[in-house]
Amino acid sequence: MHVQSSGRHPGAPRVTLLTEGTYPHSHGGVSVWCDQLVTGMPDIGFDVIAVTGTGREQIVWDLPGHVLGVRSVPMWGDAPPGRPPRGRARRQLADAYERFLTALLDPGAEDGFPPALYALARAAADGLLSPFLRDDTALTVLTDVWRRPGRAVREAAPTLHDALTATGLLEHALRPLAAPPPEHGVAHAVSGGVAVLPGLVALERHGVPLLLTEHGVYLRERYLGYRTAPYRWPVKAVILGFFRLLAEESYRRAALITPGNRYNRLWEEQGGADPASIRTVYNGVDPAAFPPAGPEPETPTLSWAGRVDPIKDLETLIRSFALVRDRLPAARLRLFGGTPRGGEAYRERCEALAAELGHADAVTFEGRVEDIKDAYAAGTVVMLSSISEGFPFTLIEAMSCGRATVSTDVGGVREAVGDTGLVVPPRDPEAMAGAALRLLGDPARRRAMGEAARLRVIEQFTLRQTIDTFRGIYHDLAAARQRPPARILLPAAAATGTGSLAG
């Protein structure tokens, strides 16, 4: 699906947002962030290359006129158009794919990943890559690489089913390479992973500077997700090797990396990013849009807001609530937020857990709420139970509303909260319940924490600060691309004839 608008902004930077599973086709924290960025900069023209599921997803955000185009790149819909390579092209692509796979599985061959990736990108642009990866030749190449002497995965005795699974996963993951990359302006990837692929191609092919913003750590979340994925080790070795080397290439090539918190920065530096290329930019909210929430509910209530997803670890939250209710039988747990397509089984599991623990009557899944402020006002204490976060919007929004919070110590949570809320270890129902009970039992402390939390947002995490920072970054990156190469002046003793050399 391609949506085109006619608005143009001569003289301003052109920015292409690169997204995956978020803006403008779904709701959630990253989508909110993108919408804030776009609507806050009417002076800048935006395009969006959105990696989606099937390609049939509807746009759910009202797009302003300066969003000039949206291109959907489906990972799981129909295969991209193209034809299988023949003759010399087939042999060349097989060689590039062999170097690509070897880099994923052999630590001594990792330097071969970038040139192999860009060779695959050229094949994708010609419509050859996806058909090749659906052909028996790709299976043969992977099987040969797996079975080489000294290869660790060889000991796991990879099967034909493993080869089919790994090749299929790679074919889907590499589909964004076929998307026409931006040729001008700035490419801004709003997450790591496959969303970055068109940006890397744009940089390689057209010199378009790449800006990378990680809200959560994409690679860490892939590690977490694949721990319980139903694949054998040879498959995981290929896929996680791809995501790891893609992260390293993204960190190495990005003109600037703007993590949403200092925790992400540690991962990025570990992944090979130059510390000088990293600049932390916190998420922000408009305090006027999230005013003090007003009176607390009459019944002691824990509220939560977000998407219903395993990474939010609602099971720990439900288990902690069961402990709270043992002490406060009147307590309630209200969960606000939608369930993404494909996440229905997780929600059913959470509902079954509440029933199993004997608290189905007190745990309610409220679904999406028209005004998210209502979700925070509904709680005496606002909870966050995630096992991975960046710099969560729900947390700073609740803080702006003046509610006391209990949050898990992941990502940038501690940076956001400071001493204005309670922070507990992830996956620890007892610690979470204890913190919630302390706040539920101390109205004066809740009130003081809520007031301090709102003041902290006003002082440090406003939307205006975030937008102004990124506007400046866009202008700087666009100007740097247009700037002619600098001339390096030599010392007089070293000068010969002209006294300078072009650099």
Automatic annotation (TrEMBL):
**Gene3D superfamilies named among the record's database cross-references:** Glycogen Phosphorylase B
Q: Name one Pfam family in it.
A: Glyco_trans_1_4
InterPro entries, sorted: DUF3492 (IPR022622), PelF-like (IPR047691)
List, alphabetically, the SUPFAM superfamilies matched. Answer: UDP-Glycosyltransferase/glycogen phosphorylase
Q: Which residues cross the membrane?
A: none
> Where is the DUF3492 domain positioned along the sequence?
14-275
Database matches in NCBIfam families: PelF
**The name this protein goes by in its record:** D-inositol 3-phosphate glycosyltransferase
